[in-house]
Amino acid sequence: MKIVILPDARAVSCAVADIIVQEVRRNPQAVLGLATGRTMEAIYAELCARHKGGIAELSNISSFNLDEYVGLSEEDPRSYHYYMRENLFSTIGIEANKGRLPKGAAHDPEQAAAEYDVALAASGGVDMQLLGIGENGHIGFNEPLSGLSTRTRVVALAKATLEQNAKMFGGDYNNVPKQAITMGIGTILEARSILLVATGSAKARAVAQSVEGALSASMPGSALQLHAKCIVVLDQGAASELGQREASERP
Ligand SMILES: O=P(O)(O)OC[C@H]1O[C@](O)(CO)[C@@H](O)[C@@H]1O
Is 246 part of any domain? Predict the structure, then answer.
């Protein structure tokens, strides 16, 4: 695991955009694994600016997003389909058949989840997976105690996650869908490279336990220790609990 610590969230967005642009320059048809959430908004804004400015050509990539809420239509402004169109796809010119997300509105979400894994495999797999992390350590919507070899599936969201994401749902966690389709931890680990991004001190505990703690299903982010090519990009806040354990306790 390579850890990069930068002064602030702005520097993080620029560095992450640099890494993604390098990947796409090397392989203009790269398959990217994409994430949603607040951390990613600044990164997508940076990528869109580079695309519009002619610095990066992103219209030939294809992508698979990590997750989507069950039961929200693709037109719902709170859905991740909508988020991706607004924050990235419409600017870089990616059609829906190339910018894929799990079909949370499907009549049979379990079936939709299984089909997503098939489509992912048929694409040749993810070249670079972009990941955020929840305050409870979730990656995708793999909540604590998710199995380390799980595949794309329907999951129940933890109360901490409902609360963390309530802002988009009128501030009341009761309004947040209780289930989502998410790539599994096993699915995520199959990406050829992984880029974990975290900003702000609210993520510091999850980051420290993921990077320096024991490999454990209670901290899904710790599964990234198993990946041979994982870069972790942090601002000072997210890095603030690193290095606090005795050297003898570290893995
Ligand atoms: O960046 P945020 O909003 O803190 O979210 C962290 C992660 O949790 C999720 O909301 C759940 O998948 C991701 O979209 C995101 O990467």
Answer: no
State which residues form the domain around 208.
2-241
Q: Is 95 contained in some domain?
A: yes
pLDDT digits (tens, 9 = 90+) for 93-151: 998 889 999 999 999 999 999 999 999 999 999 999 999 999 999 999 999 999 999 99
Whether 248 is in a domain gets the answer no
Mutation test residue for ligand 1: of 13, 16, 40, the one with most atoms within 8 Å of CB: 40
pTM of the entire predicted model = 0.95
CB of 186 within 6 A of ligand 1: the answer is: no
Mean residue pLDDT of the chain comes to 95
Helices assigned H by DSSP within the chain: 9-26, 38-52, 80-84, 90-92, 109-122, 159-164, 185-189, 204-212
Q: Whose CA is nearest to atom 9 of ligand 1?
A: 37
Q: How far is CA 61 from the centre of its chain?
A: 17
ipTM of the complex as predicted? 0.93
